[in-house]
Amino acid sequence: MSPVTIMPRFLMGAALAAVLALTPAAARAAGEAVNIPNHDFSFDGIFGTFDRASAQRGFAVYKAICSNCHSMRQLSYRHLRSLGLTEAQVNALASQFEVQDGPNDNGEMFTRPARASDHFRRPFANDAAARAANNGALPPDLSVIVKAREGGADYVRALLLGYEDPPEGVTVQPGMNYNKYFPGHQIAMAAPIAADDQVEYTDGTPATVAQMATDITTFLSWAAEPELEARRAMGVRMIIFLTILGGLVYAVKKKVWANIGQHQGLGDGG
Q1: Are residues 265 and 212 in the same domain?
Q2: Which ranges of 65-143 does DSSP label H, i.e. alpha helix?
Q3: Assigned domain for 18 exists
Q4: Residue range of the domain that includes 188
Q5: How far apart are CA 46 and CA 22, in angstroms?
Q6: What does each C-alpha distance from 180 to 31, 160, 209, 225 come to in angstroms?
Q7: 141 and 264, same structural domain?
Q8: 155-185, pLDDT tens digit by residue?
Q9: Contact present, 159 and 181 (Cβ < 8 Å)
Q10: Residue 217: enclosing H or E segment and its boundaries?
Q11: Which of 84, 161, 180, 221 is exposed most, by the fewest CB atoms within 10 A?
């Protein structure tokens, strides 16, 4: 390889190293680096499970607050049975909502009470209607929001608790709100959980802002990955099975090679 070929590659490598070295400093200077606080959720870790009581309270928060703007189209009401709701409770809950169905025998669309098999009702008829009601911003569907955002559950909870007055010298654009955990710190959504007791918990748990943020995050985490517990349980069973299998294989190997060694010794002695 000629020096003419080597030199440009060397310069390109040096330039790339310089860019990578300056990137963290530039990000800090621009205020883009945000440390998301870690929260000890019940579903963290390989043996973690969803706190059903917390998830049920989180659904109550979604129903009372979040469902006014955000859809969850990948969930059906029947899925709530895995959170501990009875079939009667699910049917009663679904029947509170009206959904469009049809066409009927006359070719007309009609509305009816929702059934357990129906998807969660959308708050708006379409995306255009959603934007029109939210100053041009489209509220995202929350079905898999926890998996769709970097930082997952910790980020979602932090975002809900990150609303505050902007620091001195920071100007918030019209129609925007300051949030210390949102990238860029300016978000169109106003604080959805702004005061204690916005939701009345039937189990007597104090509905503080922090508690409601934790509960709705637990519910959204379950909604994004309802098979999490079953998958982890299968993984643990596979690890146990492979450990036992590995031990048996090792024992058989030792036995086989011990017999081979004995036969070789007898052969050498003969």
Answers
A1: no
A2: 87-94, 127-133
A3: no
A4: 52-75+119-226
A5: 37
A6: 10, 10, 17, 27
A7: no
A8: 999 999 999 999 999 999 998 999 999 999 9
A9: yes
A10: helix 209-224
A11: 84
